[in-house]
Structure formats: C-alpha cells, structure tokens
C-alpha cells in the first residue's frame, strides 16, 4: 500500500501541473473546466455546442507502462497515468479509471472474477466468472426474503471466506433474541471468517485513502467528470443483474421459457428495493445534474428477440432511466452491442435528459431515430486500436459529418496501440477544428 508521503507528493504534483496548464493555455483551470462542462451539457440538453466534444480511452498499461494490476494494487500509479492522459490529450471529460482493492478481494476469496496481480499475473486481463449463484428452485426464497437469500446463499457462494454464513438459520425467526445463535459465532469457522473480514476491511480502508477523490483531483486541473456510479442511484437494467450475478446466462435463458413469471417478479423486486433506497442528486453540487454510468449487456438482438426485449428487458430499464431522471441525474446507458431499431425505445423517455452511449455501428440509424430527442455518446469500435491514425481520423470526421448536425453528439475515441503521444495530440487538434460549428 502507498504511504502518506506518496499521497502528499501526488497532491503537490497536482498543484505544479495546475500552474503549468494555466501558463500554457493562458486560462485558469476553472475557465477550462467551465468551457468543457458547458460543451458537454449543451450536447445533452440538445443545444449546439461550439464544437463536438470527445472523450479519449487509452489502456493505462499501454500509455505509461504500468502493469494492469495497478488498478488493484497501486491506485496512485493508476491515477498518475490517468492524469497524464488527461493533460496530454485534453479531452472534454476526465476519466480516473476503475480501481478495486485486490488485497481485500483476496482476503474475501472472491469466486466470481479473476483479476491481474491476484490469482493471475500482473498483466492478465480482468475476467468475470458467470455462474448460477441463485439456483433455479430458489426464486421463492429470493422473492420472499431477498436479504436472507443474499446472506445465506449468495454471499457464501461468491466469497469463499464467507462460507460459514450458509449455516445461519432464517434470520426472520430470531424475534426471541439473538443469544440462541451466539455459540455459532464462537465456532472456528466463524472466527476465521471474522478474521478475513477484518483483514479485508483494513485493506479496503487503506486503498480508499490512497485513491482519495480522483474525480475532484482531475477537476482541479480543468477536467469535468465523465460518468460515475452514483451511490444514490438505482443501477441499470434489473434483468442484467439476474442474468449475470444470480442465474447466469444459461439459467436466465431457460427461465424465460420455464418460469417467466418468477423471472419478471425478480426483476421487479430488484428495482423496487433499489428505488426504496435511492437518494436524489445534490442540486447544489457543481456538476449538477451528475452523469451516472449504466452498463447494459443482455438486451441486444443476439441475446433475445424483440418480443423478449419488450417483455423482460425494457420495462426494468425504462423504470431505471426514468427514476434517475426524476432523482436529478443524467443517466448514461451503455448499450454494449448493436441494438439497431431497439434504440427507438428511448423516445418513451424525457427529451434532453439522457445521454445514450452506443456502438459506432448504430450511430447513423440512432441519429435518425433519436435526433432532437436523445443525445448520443458514440464509441469508436474496438478494432480502431489496430488502425493507423489516418484511418481513425477519417472515421471520426465521417462520423461528425453524418451525426453532428444540430449537436447531439459526443465521441469516445480509442487511441490505437503503439501510437506516439505527439501524433495523437496532432490528430486530436485536427478533430477539434473539424468539429467546430
């Protein structure tokens, strides 16, 4: 873990970089922040910006040589890299990365993912491991007692260190007092579990201190935040939660045919409980309304038919999107595949309140369907990492020509592998000029 001296050093670097940015641009970081924030807000709220805004995605290990494991074990190194990318490439929104505490994950014996620097080498790609963590005959238990199911079934299956929780009786039966269970907590396996949880807690606390407020640190250099995960929000499509974290893809596909009513009710219960715990966005905050990222991965035509989309997927997603808007957030749903004409469903939601993140393959059709109603965050294809800069520049300019009329467009640019920073800077300068109104 990083010591306090390293954290202080990082903060001192930020002050020096702020001064350098202001000297180079002739503007204060507050002015730069306001310009970028207005540009993005204009797009979302269906006004024409001074130019097309963009976000740049770069693999941190390719950019600065840090191992992929830095996101799990060296958050200061990750922050330095993400900060360098922002200063070098000057996107309209900052992205601090998505760190997770690998040491805490190890202490808890996480079973549903593999991460670099933990079970695998420092440069291994993170992998999520799907499984039927809720069995096909456990819907009633989940529906009748969601918290009890999570404690006595889900957590012991996903976290090896929490296996003793499976021995707990139903907690809704302890009205007469907890003392009857007290001896259970003195058993060797529960004492071992407590030790692992305390260890994980210490690691996570130190890790969070090292992360600090990464978004605010980028804001101090003039970069507004992109889209975080609001603690007061209601998450994405509940069907995604069931299919990935509970039943797995195979299980949920079978459930659509064998027990559709229970599948639908599980989605409803998940959304009801999220809404019950939701917290409105702070209207006095600098970045109000804040953007909330929302990955979506099971509603595309490859996974389900149009009829299944309308029955199982869209009702929960629609409620989530509307609830976020009502709470004062700007939801940013990431349609993580080609959705085609299904994107027309966004017309059922408020105008100028949502930023739909889509694949570039959907861009032209999405502009036809949603232009003047819902703005688009268009992601360049993953294959662009293998393109030349000339190919990437031509692709982006073509995208601007076809989709930026009257605003409504933000572009996510992925930096090709083995590209010199100076060449990328030159290309982005050209894109900025080309995207001006």
The parts where pLDDT drops under 50 for at least 5 residues are: none
Percent in strands: 5-15%
**Overall form:** globular
What radius of gyration results from the CA coordinates?
23 Å
Numbering strands along the chain, what is their spatial order in the largest sheet? 1-8-7-6
Structural class: alpha/beta
Number of strands: 8
Average pLDDT, rounded to a whole number, is 95
Task: List the helices and strands in order.
Answer: HHEHHHHEEHHHHHHHEHEEHEHEH
Distance N to C terminus: 48 Å
Percent in helix: 40-55%
Count of helical stretches: 17
Largest sheet: 4 strands, parallel
Describe the model.
The structure is a single chain. This protein is α/β, with parallel strands linked by helices and 437 residues long. It has a domain at 102-199. 49% of the residues lie in helices and 8% in strands. The chain has 17 helices and eight strands. The strands form three sheets. A four-stranded parallel β-sheet has the order 1-8-7-6. Strands 2-3 form a two-stranded antiparallel ribbon. Helix 16 packs parallel to helix 17. It is globular, with a radius of gyration of 23 Å. The termini are far apart. The model has no long low-confidence stretch (mean pLDDT 95).
Question: How would you briefly describe this protein structure?
Answer:
The strands form 3 sheets. This protein has a 4-stranded parallel sheet with strand order 1-8-7-6. The protein has a two-stranded antiparallel ribbon with strand order 2-3. It is an alpha/beta fold. It is 49% helix and 8% strand.
